[in-house]
Amino acid sequence: MPEPLKRILHKVLRGNPDDRYQTGGEMRDELRAWLNNQGKRFGRARAAEELETLLHEKPAPQETRAFPIEKGVLPTPEEEATEEEQDRSE
């Protein structure tokens, strides 16, 4: 992994929130600068393509086995049903 990209990722993962990017825009700007230095562009059209691909490849809730707190959202009805089924089978 290139050192500049590693530096960006390490900042995202720092334990102290004050040491992380304070906004998504700050991280976006650094990532865009890195891409531009690589001779690559990542504009709206490319971002839309990437998002569309990610949405189509999204795993089913039961495939992720993530707890709602890990995802940062309340469980969906599907996830609640899956959890209830798992509880009954234990």
Protein described:
- The mean pLDDT is 82.
- It is built from six helices and no strands.
- The chain folds into two domains: 3-56, no CATH class; 60-90, no CATH class.
- The chain has 90 residues and is an all-alpha fold.
Number of strands: 0
What is the general shape? elongated
- Unreliable sequence segments: none
Measured on Cα atoms, how large is the radius of gyration? Answer: 18 Å
Beta-strand residue percentage: under 5%
Number of domains: 2
Tally the helices.
6
> How much helix is in the residues?
55-70%
Order of helices and strands: HHHHHH
Mean pLDDT over the full residue set: 82
Q: What distance lies between the first and last C-alpha atoms, to the nearest angstrom?
A: 43 Å
Keywords:
6 helices; mainly alpha; 64% helix; 90 residues
A few lines on this structure:
The protein has helices at about 5-10, 25-35, 45-55, 60-65, 70, 75-90.
Lay out the secondary structure.
Elements: H1 3-12, H2 24-37, H3 44-56, H4 61-64, H5 68-71, H6 77-89
Helix pairs in contact: 1-2
